[in-house]
Amino acid sequence: xxxxxxxxxxxxxxxxxxxxxxxxxxxxxxxxxxxxxxxxxxxxxxxxxxxxxxxxxxxxxxxxxxxxxxxxxxxxxxxxxxxxxxxxxxxxxxxxxxxxxxxxxxxxxxxxxxxxxxxxxxxxxxxxxxxxxxxxxxxxxxxxxxxxxxxxxxxxxxxxxxxxxxxxxxxxxxxxxxxxxxxxxxxxxxxxxxxxxxxxxxxxxxxxxxxxxxxxxxxxxxxxxxx
Length: 227
Description:
Elements: H1 3-16, H2 24-38, H3 46-55, H4 60-65, H5 71-85, H6 90-101, H7 114-125, H8 129-143, H9 167-173, H10 185-226
Helix pairs in contact: 1-3, 2-3, 2-7, 3-6, 3-7, 5-6, 6-7, 7-10, 8-10
């Protein structure tokens, strides 16, 4: 890929980025992760991979406006149209489209090509570890989701049974389950390096969230009872 082609793809990506949790630096981290993984694989079409990494989140604007929209599917079609209109071959554009369409964490549309699997792993790496937690907290703040909700006992829930899209719920149903979903050996290795730090952060945050309720709430009840 020439510098000129890279800049054309990069400029289009930058024109589509508005979500702070999926900003340009997220795109570059995914790209760099992908190239790391690709260096351990044979037969990778790096042009397809680079294009797919740069364009994989161009549908985020549409999903942010309407949460029912799948950014991967919308973004795949946007990427395809942009590439064809920019003079890329239909075959190249289709291969990028397929990688973008299947990069999301969904069981019913798994990645098939090597480039798509590498993109999937690279994107999931940025959702792993403490980086993934920081990005999730950033996104939750943007959309107004709570950190936690209270369980039947009046104590912050661990997230497993939450009725709302809290951070603790996101961690238990998605982030915690990322680590056995990687397609490449290098991706799994990099993910395993991040797993312990994410779990430690979650456990510490859960403990600190519950402590005031366990101690202070009882003290308040004693004071109100005495009055």
